[in-house]
Design brief:
The protein folds into 2 domains: 134 residues, Nucleotidyltransferase, domain 5; 48 residues, no CATH class. It has a 5-stranded mixed β-sheet with strand order 3-2-1-4-5, with helices on both faces. The termini are far apart. By secondary structure, it is of the alpha/beta class. It is globular, with a radius of gyration of 18 Å.
Length: 216
């Protein structure tokens, strides 16, 4: 009896400004050993976080279909909105989201099974990295280039690809400075409400906070 192949799709997207310059990233892995089989990333111009998240999922499912259309897929995202909508527990209410959700659902129906799982951002680091690489490349006027061979029929048990951005760099390389920023104040934060599932503009204070960060 043949064994059903299983793939993992890790997808993410981001927007610098929400809406603003946006991009997505997706990684396809062999579920058996975690080997990276494909990477996808691209800038999508001016868009929201949610559009970028859906774009990452669509790209990941397309890549998985190129590798093994008969595989069972587990799609992992740190977007609660996309996971809940694609799982059928939340309705797709925003008009801009419906075509993307429909496209993702149509791709999912081509597989024997697709399961969606929410994961913390820390466990979605590779897809997040790819999305940021795509946005950085676009900002520099370049096209994103993958770090692993993009083959429609990769070896099923290839050794995991080493993340070229991981680990410590030996001296005399300069130290890396990481800056963590939260978005400026919105009407939802004033009301002490979560703002991850709706679009919210900045208040006057939020705009001044963003300007101060830009100056810094």
């Amino acid at each position: 009896m043949s064994t059903v192949r299983r793939l993992v799709v890790e997808a993410d997207g981001g927007s610098r400004g929400n809406p603003g310059p946006a991009g997505y990233g997706a990684v396809v892995r062999d579920a058996a050993d975690g080997a990276v089989l494909a990477e996808r990333a691209a800038s999508i111009g001016h868009a929201t976080n949610n559009v970028a998240e859906y774009s990452g999922l669509i790209a990941g499912l397309r890549a998985a279909a190129e590798i093994a259309p008969d595989a069972e897929v587990e799609a992992r995202l740190d977007s609660k909105l996309v996971v809940e909508q694609m799982s059928g527990r939340w309705k797709v209410k925003h008009p801009a989201m419906r075509p993307l959700a429909d496209e993702a659902a149509a791709l999912a129906r081509t597989f024997p099974a697709v399961r969606y799982q929410w994961v913390p951002r820390a466990r979605n680091a590779d897809a997040d990295r790819l999305a940021n690489e795509a946005m950085d490349a676009a900002a520099a006027g370049r096209s994103w280039e993958p770090s692993v061979p993009q083959s429609p029929d990769p070896a099923p048990h290839r050794a995991p690809t080493t993340n070229r951005l991981s680990g410590w760099m030996a001296p005399p390389a300069p130290p890396t400075t990481t800056v963590l920023l939260r978005h400026g104040q919105t009407p939802l934060s004033v009301d002490k409400r979560f703002s991850g599932t709706v679009e919210a503009s900045l208040t006057d204070l939020g705009m001044s906070q963003a300007a101060a960060v830009a100056d810094r």
